[in-house]
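Quick sanity check, Large ribosomal subunit protein uL10:
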Amino acid sequence: MPITTEKEQLVAELSDKLTRTKGAVLTTYSGLSVAQDTKLRRKLREAEVEYRVVKNTLTRIAAAKANITGLDKHLEGTTAIAISYTDPVAPAKVLSEFVKELKGKNLEIKAGIVEGKVIDANGVKSLASLPSREVLLAQLLAGMQSPIVGLVNVLHGTTRNLVCALEAIRKQKESA
């Protein structure tokens, strides 16, 4: 199949997006009503996720140019891709929630890409179940802060014991 200049531009653009993406999710979209599609696109936009319908052949070529392997087997039937350049979890979360809302009808998750690695639909679901980035950072900081708090308490206890001992010595000398 000869590639026209327009298709070459589409492949170059998609390859660039796949290279820059932190997280992407491929879905089927057939059977979505206009209202459902509009609602999905609005939710994705709010999460700063780009969503577009892609041609499987052009996506295969773009993935090869972006050095992403293992995507070919997921590129069958209708395909749309949700891409986030900042949060690898955002597309998975929004799409998983929307699939639950639709009860699995008319929208199906095919696969995902995280930091250039392809994951299957179960991997996308696992990714979607992770806490948000802010929660993970708070948990990390709490874990890092815990030993320091313990050290401060131990040092404070030693100082308190020293003050109590000095106070006891003072009282002993006063009474003597």
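Posting the structure with no commentary besides this: The mean pLDDT is 86.
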